[in-house]
Amino acid sequence: MMRRIRITRGYSNAAAKPNVTIQPAIQRKPTDLLKALSETVGVDTTAPHFAFIDDPITIPSTQNAKKTYFMAKELGKRAARQLAEEWPTLFAFDRDQPRLPVFRPEKLADPLQIEPTEKNLLEIIKSRQVQDACTLYERMRSENIDVSDSTQLELFRLVAYYNSRNAPFAEWHEWHGMRNFAEDETHSWQSASVADLLFETLPKTDETVSIMIAALCKFANSESVERARQLYKENSTLKIRREAYNLLISTSNFKIASNLCAEMSKNGMKPDVSTFDSLLIAANKIEKFEDRVDAFTKILSEMSHLKIRPALSTYHKILKGLDDKSKNKEKEMRHLTLAISWVSQILDELSQTGEPLEPSSSSCNLFFYEAMGVAYRCANIEIAEKLRHLYEHPNNRVKMPAFTIESNFYNRYLQLYIEQTASIEQIYTKYIELVPRLVGASESLCNAVYQKLARQPHWALLRRVIEDGINAGQIAGKLGGEMRKQLINVQYHTLSVAERDEFTQIVQKMVATLVEFSQFTDEYTKRMQRKLSPSQISDLALLLTRIGEIPKAYELLDLLLDENASEGDEATVFAKGYPRPSSMAELFEDALRRRDAYGASTCLEIMALNGNRRSLEPLANRIFERCSLTDTQKKIIEGFVRLRPE
């Protein structure tokens, strides 16, 4: 019986066991999972930029602070790399697997110390160390070491492209901060350089002549351009490359450039987008605005005829030509109207194609910046919205450099949005979306928000703008007075309990910050000191009374009556200036309401700094009416008022 039960149970278990079918693996790219996560999670528009995620107190709010923060991180990394290059033996026992070359950098070879061989020369050429390559090549020539034509051609390509100088910051792929923030110097062609020597040494072929013409035009001055044209005429039998034609066209006026295009067609050389971009550069040299616009129209018509799709760099050059700032305001407005119509047509065409926007040159991203500038000057929020939507669309692969051009693009957009939008709630939503993630809290931007808040109060937006302003260091500047004015105008009794707590925190933070800056009196911090002005003290005292911190308010007011606070090397208050009359009047009324004789007398003494007997007598009488004073106290106040000038 037991055996039968076991057999039956075995059969039932076998029947219940499901068949497992293993599906074939789905072929995915290495970044597919990251893309899926990005599409699912999205972007947190209220968070700081990923490059600045750190302790909240160190997250930068302004463009200058962002630059300082980003460059500090990058230069620290470069310093560590330099140390590893100079003292590699310090890391000899590190055995990381897999070995990462970035953590084991090797010092570049010294062209004066290494063996002068063709192999070493090619290695330096490959690393794009232009000046080191020139040094090693000249050393090999001085030691009569033969260099093959192929190696000399490689060196010629390098030195001609960079004008015998090292690669500019714009081509530093690894160091993003140097690439975006550093300014490249413009250089004209170096005569009698290694490039000239190699050009005379190498045989005159289509490639070498084209390289030389292109280099002379790339680093153009009057002499180099004339020499390039002479080379073009002398080598008319050779097949000049398209790049040389393009640079020749860009350095010519429109008439000569048109003739060069005709010669290109005659020689069987088909133009590309760069050719027409160069032709637009030549067209921008036309002085008369109407003739310039006609030239733009003809160029676009020719591109359409040849079925060449304009790039964003093409449209950027057109917009640069339409930006004709004239002293005649009426004429300038006509030009702006034409420019905004061009921008509208360009955006419609780009939106209708549905094809991805690919970068064709380094200037493609400037189209968005230039177009937003036109929309801003024309106060056209609809065009600005279309432009932003196009820039953020997944099909757009042309991106502006972060923290520089992109920040200016969004800054113009946000300022225009604030000016043209009536709803303060929509402005608040847009502000917290862009500041400080993409747009720095600049003075002009904050001032625009304050002007809007003066007409439409909105506590949440005011709190955010003031916090950004404090973090941006605006509290001690011109906008500091606007911050205090906005806070004073807040109807405290209309705030909710949570909003009153926020109001209290902002006032406390503002007072603590200004007092701390005023107390930087020692020799090491003196340069950072910002003394308190009488108007600041009166405003801060009023705000402190609003949040119930009355003793601290009168501690600040006492500074106005303390001569030691405004004199000497350790002064914390400006000797010049007067307290704000409206703030002092409200402080005086508050003291009377509380029947505070000391507070009212203090306010009276401060108002006497810029008042006369006639204005002080009614105030003294009100103190006598509302406060309980002894006869001696009354006589002291009467004597004080009587001694004031009439």
TrEMBL record:
One of its GO terms (biological process) is mitochondrial translation. GO terms for molecular function: ribosomal small subunit binding; rRNA binding. Coiled coil: none annotated. Keywords: Mitochondrion, Repeat, Ribonucleoprotein, Ribosomal protein, RNA-binding, rRNA-binding, Transit peptide, Translation regulation. One of its GO terms (cellular component) is mitochondrion. It is found in: Mitochondrion. Belongs to the mitochondrion-specific ribosomal protein mS39 family. This is Small ribosomal subunit protein mS39.
